[in-house]
Amino acid sequence: MSDQLLAVFSEGLEVPADSLNNETSPENNESWDSLAAMNLVSLIEETFDVRLSTREIMKMRTIGIVREILQGKGIDV
What we know:
By secondary structure, the protein is mostly helical.
């Protein structure tokens, strides 16, 4: 199964997609630092054609939370 959100995080964090899951966070993935976080926001906005508010960006502490935010915007991920 292809997971577009994991593919975006894989690109942004420069790690294999199969090493990521909904629980992946800055606390358990050393590649997810502040610079990567800014890059991820850009990649997510471009890939899914959305705008993320500052509040939404601040809540993005795991891939699962990002998935929930996108689903709340009507994006099937």
